[in-house]
Amino acid sequence: MQAVVVDHINKCYADKVAALRDVSFTVNQGEIFGLVGPDGAGKTSLFNIMTTLLFADTGTVTLLDNDVENDYKKVRSIIGYLPGVFSLYPDLTVEENLRFFATMYKSSLKDNMPIIRPIWGQLSPFKTRKAGKLSGGMKQKLALCCALIHKPEILFLDEPTTGVDPVSRKEFWDILKSIQKQNITVVVSTPYMDEATRCDRIALIQNGEIIKIDPPVKIVKEFNGTLYSIRVKQIFETLDVMERCPIDSNFYPYGEYVHVVFYDKDTTTIKERFAAFLNENGVEYTDMEEIAPSIEDCFIELMERRDGVQY
């Protein structure tokens, strides 16, 4: 069964900026579905539409056969939502925030303790601490508890780990996997490409448009080209030199490395030909090796094919 159906959604703001352009996708019940893209891609606008907080200009969204505009009261009773900014009451304690949201949803901590137990086990030692005094990771765990306290059928999480340390990010995603076992559909957005691998399927979004929807493994498998990683001393000077590379390729900075995607069909001599080109142009480099692409590499490569833009 399809828990979420997004059908040809468009949204343009007053300044004529098109936030969403003909966005369509479905989410299966019990699935963890990721919306992956950089800041400004349109993720939050789409989440606000799916959670009844914003009207689309055109198109429809249905959640378990309920239209988000016409059936918004029913929709709000079956979803949980964790927005991109901390929205709980900082002057209330952890336990007071939970009890407030449980009362608002006519639920209780006791009735729904099984669903929040994995999170509550980490929060309970701080139950008397004010929410505003929690660390970033603990704030997000509290917000997740509050979003789950009425046992929603669909959980929306808008960039839940932004600004959270790596350990807390991993713990948060482990919690999401445990939530999925409760047959709760999870729709999560993230700017972190590495988190995409924890989803069952992902939609890559850029400039308000969906550019690909598939399981992460399939997206990586369909990577077009041969990917090399090269450590160089002068990254930006190297990028300038790469503009003259005679081998059909795409290239972009990746930390202290440069990633180069070769589209040449003769893969057996690529490394030697490319090394000769770098040497001829005086580029100092080390650690040139073929590597497996990440989701981020796939995203950039898809954008290159879509727009013909050199990164």
Structure in words:
It contains ten helices and 14 strands. α3 runs parallel beside α5 (136-148) and α4 (113-123) runs antiparallel to α5. It has helices spanning 43-50, 72-78, 94-104, 113-123, 136-148, 166-180, 216-221, 235-242, 270-280, 295-307, and strands at 2-12, 18-28, 32-36, 58-63, 66-67, 79-82, 154-158, 185-190, 201-206, 209-214, 226-232, 249-254, 257-262, 285-290. The strands form three sheets. A six-stranded mixed beta sheet has the order 6-7-8-3-9-10, with helices on both faces. Strands 2-1-4-5 form a four-stranded antiparallel beta sheet, covered by helices on one side. It is elongated. The chain folds into two domains: 2-215, P-loop containing nucleotide triphosphate hydrolases (Rossmann fold, 3-Layer(aba) Sandwich), CATH 3.40.50.300; 224-292, Reverse transcriptase/Diguanylate cyclase domain (Alpha-Beta Plaits), CATH 3.30.70. β9 (201-206) and β10 (209-214) form a beta hairpin. By secondary structure, the chain is an alpha/beta fold. The model has no long low-confidence stretch (mean pLDDT 91).
